[in-house]
């Protein structure tokens, strides 16, 4: 099994450009998450989804949109990129959430630079 | 708002030593606590998950404890090896009354095991 995969691995954008990050999981997990990791800040939750067709805001949602049209995919969009969105983006999934046994599995990350 | 603190921020010890990493959290209403390992430029790998009703979990040379009432967890690494060098992250899943809020992470402990 591939687990959680992320596309692309690296990307450089200019301010104002748009892009979509793709997360895919093959574990039939219900819950999916997008986090960003910044030096000195730790990982912070951007958006999450509790199932196909659902999305919800996390701690730092501004400037991002998400969609979960298929259970296995969770897309993170930047409509107008800003330098403050330079970060490493991680996608994660879990079978359910809040249940004690549900470990979150992380993808390898996407390193995004906005100039 | 849940806050997670990890002490120390960095630790360097000789190979073979036993060591303890500390994690504290401000809101004791949690579902679970997870310890992750992150290698440079890589994603997160789950090491141990402790249910809110549990006191500890063990996996090989790793032992994690949880004292929910005091908001503390420790990760004990026995007989450390150079391959244990990585950043160790503590994260809690907050109980939100039915919703899924994702994990709240500490900033990590950067561990170096000297050969």
How would you summarize what this structure contains?
With 115 residues, chain A is mostly beta strands. Chain A has strands at residues 4-7, 10-13, 19-25, 31-38, 42-49, 56-57, 65-67, 73-78, 87-94, 105-106, 110-114.
Main attributes?
heterodimer; A: 115 residues; mainly beta; 7-stranded mixed beta sheet; 4-stranded antiparallel beta sheet; 0% helix; 50% strand; globular; B: 115 residues; 6-stranded mixed beta sheet; 5-stranded antiparallel beta sheet; 11 strands; 58% strand
Account of the 3D structure:
The complex is a heterodimer of chains A (115) and B (115). By secondary structure, chain A is mainly beta. Chain A is built from no helices and eleven strands. Chain A has strands at 4-7, 10-13, 19-25, 31-38, 42-49, 56-57, 65-67, 73-78, 87-94, 105-106, 110-114. In chain A, the strands form two sheets. In chain A, strands 2, 4, 5, 6, 9, 10 and 11 form a seven-stranded mixed sheet that branches. Chain A has a four-stranded antiparallel sheet with strand order 1-3-8-7, with no helix packed on it. The mean pLDDT of chain A is 92. Chain B has 115 residues and is mostly beta strands. Helices cover 0% and strands 58% of the residues of chain B. Chain B has strands at 4-7, 10-14, 19-25, 30-38, 44-51, 56-59, 62-67, 72-77, 86-94, 103-105, 109-114. In chain B, strands 2, 4, 5, 9, 10 and 11 form a six-stranded mixed sheet that branches. Chain B has a five-stranded antiparallel sheet with strand order 1-3-8-7-6, with no helix packed on it. In chain B, a hairpin with a 4-residue loop joins strand 7 and strand 8 (72-77). At the A-B interface, strand 4, strand 5 and strand 10 of A face strand 4, strand 5, strand 9 and strand 10 of B.
């Amino acid at each position: 099994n591939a687990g959680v995969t992320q596309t692309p691995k690296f990307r450089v954008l200019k301010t104002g450009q748009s892009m979509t990050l793709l997360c895919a999981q093959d574990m039939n997990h219900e819950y999916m998450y997008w986090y960003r990791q910044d030096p000195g800040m730790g990982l912070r939750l951007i958006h999450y989804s509790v199932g196909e067709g659902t999305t919800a805001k996390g701690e730092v949602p501004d400037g991002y949109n998400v969609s979960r049209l298929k259970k296995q995919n969770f897309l993170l969009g930047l409509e107008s990129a800003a330098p403050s969105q330079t970060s490493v983006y991680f996608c994660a999934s879990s079978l359910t959430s809040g249940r004690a046994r549900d470990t979150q599995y992380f993808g390898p990350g996407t390193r995004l630079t906005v100039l | 708002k849940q806050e997670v603190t990890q002490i120390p921020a960095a630790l360097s010890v000789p190979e073979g030593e036993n060591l303890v990493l500390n994690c504290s959290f401000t809101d004791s209403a949690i579902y679970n606590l997870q310890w992750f390992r992150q290698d440079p430029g890589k994603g997160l790998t789950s090491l141990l998950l402790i249910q809110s009703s549990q006191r500890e979990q063990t996996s090989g040379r790793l032992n994690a404890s949880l004292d929910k009432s005091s908001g503390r967890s420790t990760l004990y690494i026995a007989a450390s090896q150079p391959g244990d060098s990585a950043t160790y992250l503590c994260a809690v899943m907050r109980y939100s009354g039915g919703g899924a809020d994702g994990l709240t992470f500490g900033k990590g402990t950067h561990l170096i095991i000297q050969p």
